[in-house]
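Narrative of activities, Objective 1.

The group set out to show that a structural description can be obtained from nothing but a protein's sequence at a throughput compatible with the screening campaign. Below is one input-output pair from the validation batch, recorded exactly as produced.
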Amino acid sequence: SWRKDQSMKTTVAGALVKRFKEREENCRVAVIDCFTRLLAMTVAAAKNGMISLESGEEESGVPVIDLRSKYVPAIVKACEKQLEAKKGGERTKTSALALLSTLCVAPGGIGEPTQIESVFAHIHSILSPDPKHRTISTGLTKSIKLDALCLVRIMMTCDQHDASCIKHAFLSTLLGEVCNAVQEDWYKVIAEALRVLAEVPSLLLLEKEWKAQQMTDEDSPNNTEETNQVAKALYDAIEPRLAAHDLDQEIKECALVASAQLLSVLHPSLSTEQQHRLLSLLLERLKNETTRIAAMKTLPILASSSKSSRLDVSPILSNVVSELASLLRQQSRGVKQSALESLDMVIQCHGQDCGGDQDVELYDGVLRELGMIIVDSDLHISHLSLRASISVLKVCPSSGPSVKKHVLPPALVLSTSPLLQDLALESLLSLLEQLVVSDAVDFHELLTSLQGRLTNDIGGNSTSGMGVGTSTSSSSGGGSKQAVSNLARCIAVITAATTPSNRDKVVENLISSLQSAIAAGGDGGVGVSAQEVQLALLASGDLGRKVNLAAMAGGVAPNLLHIYLSFFDASSEDAKHAAAYALGRASVGAMDVFLPAILNALEQNSQKKQYLLLSALRELIHCYQTGGGADGGDISSSVPLILPHLVSHCSDKEEGVRTMVAECMGSLTCLEPGVMLPHLQELVATHGGKDVDDNEEGGGRKDALSCWTVATAIKFAIAAHADPSKLAGFMPSFLRLLSERDLSVRNAALLMVYSSVHHTPQLVAGLMQEHILPSLHEVSCCGCVVGILLGNGF
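Output recorded for this entry:
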């Protein structure tokens, strides 16, 4: 549609642009709308990598359309002719404005600064109240004004234009007209005009940042005077709409956002009286039931003001914090969530500005409300409450007793909930760590309370030494695997945060209890003792991820290594898996001690122990994949040591072992694609294409099992978001597994394709015809897979 053919004198796009001047309006509108859809689809195709809209030569067979230099000037000129035509209809002008809005998201946007100024000049003629400059009839003013304001906002917010060009063109041409549009009668025009004004401070901030990068003098007298004039114009336009009560809800919300942006960026250019006026109106809107959610959403904007010239919100800060705390009692979950998010941001940025001795009393009330909504029946609300509690503790360390009284009891109950996971768990761990770091709670008292949660919950007793009985939870569940795991992470995090002497004492107690369990038979008995053994194993492993156990005196690392391997012989499956988990996690902080032991044991132990050792290895790799260890190092130097052992087990007859190997290979592919992908490709080349008998137990069967492991590893890598750019070049080699004679290999390869279609469809988009569809047609039971592929547009 955009490129000429040998037999064509023009392109479809060029022909459509030329027909913008059709005399019949219905035909003219249809042509412009058709071109708009063509442009939108072209931009979408460029985002997906199917074409390129940047000038240059074609690379890798991707077509290049030089939209910016060849088409944009003609498009803008044709749209301007429609906008300036006094006899043009409303539909034509609306279509032209919609086309320009679509053009804004294309590379280069509207074009050069002269084109931006020209478009703004035409919009000025639409917004102007002067009949001499107006190019539209009075009856059509409202809807065209709305479309014109939408275009202005899109031009200001898209990242295709230079902020300096947009700013100079807007301030010189449209600022006054947009401020006047706020006084219009139609609520939609007023709201859109306020949205445009809300973007002006951000535009000035972008230009200031750009000048700072260019090392220019952005604080020159001319710039300061211009900024003061803009701030005054914005204040005069926004303040009346913010103060009025009998307005549409949309106008109120837009006025709140605009005033927050004005205060956040341009408050140095406002007088103290003007700042206090806007702040008092924001507080008033926060107390109003119909506008409180919108007001809460503006508070983070105020809190994020520049640190170099931070807005002084002290006149309303205490009232805002108290009001937000009171909103936590509301039954509406949306109100509570908005209040928590705003409260956390306000406390983080301005919590230290509260007045002196009133801090503790104010935050005591806040913490009381936060503690009442920390329950496992709503983990997201609990997560936000815990984050807000952490913020209070950081800005006001003297609030430690209040945190201990109101927040810690429900937090301890939450620690043994089988539902606890993800963000809520991370926030709980952060709170416990902050309590220890700030000395808000005695470490030994907190440790005793956490250890007591296991026994108390199993025994049905809901109290503890820290008054946990004052809070309730939807389920105790202390005996579940998830609850024990969460409790172990809590113990590990506070142990890592405490003093070295306390840490040594905890580790000594863990080792002693585990050695006693081994002496008693390896399972620690039944009931509570078995749970305590699992807790000690998991806690020691989680601690080893955060600190280097090998650096601790007394041979801690060798003792724990012996303990973990000893528990592989336990009769309890839970104890075995806990030991494998602990061994993998402890290896993160002390890899030099634990990793060689794991790799050596892999070649010396039985099949069952190999599975546990591979589980430990997977946990080690997964820890690095999700954030690394205590020292922030990486695993790249250990990959050459790990890989041969994985390869030697990739043809194991046990599917569980092969699956574990595939998970390890998939995670390593995410971490080190440059090392792993060539090795996996080599495995396919070595073991693929062999004739296999299903009953064969020799080399042919092992080739098939190796290919199965490679396909499964790539599936795991794709699901874990491996780098698509590095994986793409190897996909043709891996897709050859679809043609293997062994049905299990084909099935694994189909699952690999499905994973790619689901997570990164661009990996297989260009390989469907040549590599995938022919193999699918040969498989009689692939109807569901074909349906999935067709449903994703292939």
